Amino acid sequence: MPVMDDVPVSVADRWVSALSRHDLDAAADCFTIDYADEAPARRGESVHGRAAARRNFQRLFADVPDLTATILRAVQDGTDVWMEGRMEGRRRDGSRMEFVGVNIFEVENGQFRSGRIYTELVRDAGGIDAQIDRMAAGST
Predict the structure, then answer these.
(1) Both ends of the chain: CA-CA distance in Å?
(2) Which of 25, 27, 59, 100 is most buried (CB neighbours < 10 A)?
(3) CB of 64 closer than 8 Å to CB of 90
(4) 6-22: average pLDDT
């Protein structure tokens, strides 16, 4: 039987809790030293290494001082956790930041080893017709 901290869903819970507490060390410690991810819908966007993840969290905490993170749903599949989540808060200029989507993390020894990231900033997109236009005609 695995230790609870090694269970993929528990690692996701620990990470999201650390983000909401703005605990930089605890958030970074959820990732292996050689962590690597990719965002298939955003070519060229990836994170390599715990240090890079830590820098990203440090900037978020500084620029979104009331940042909170929430897991909406999480499912474990072997050593993976599929997590639908939300991060939100107000930027220092007062504008609202909402970030939602799905992360698929591979967990090894109680840390995220790799990830596939399907997240985006929430925006007003103009309805389903505008989305279909973007898909069919390539308009932005």
Answers:
(1) 50
(2) 27
(3) yes
(4) 95
The HSE-up count of residue 61 (CA atoms within 13 Å, CB side) is: 16
Whether the predicted pLDDT of 128 surpasses 60: yes
Over residues 34-86, the pLDDT tens digits come to: 999 999 988 888 999 999 999 999 999 999 999 999 999 999 999 999 999 99
Residue type, 25: D
Burial class (CB in 10 A: 0-12, 13-18, 19+), 73: exposed
Say if residue 139's pLDDT is above 80: no
3-class SS of residue 1 = coil
∠ CA 51-53-57, nearest 5°, is 115
Distance between CA atoms of residues 62 and 98, nearest Å: 16
CA dihedral 127, 131, 134, 136 (to 10 degrees): -120
Buried b (16+ CB within 10 A) or exposed e, 17-54: ebbbebebeebbbbbbeebbbbbeeeeeeebeebeebb
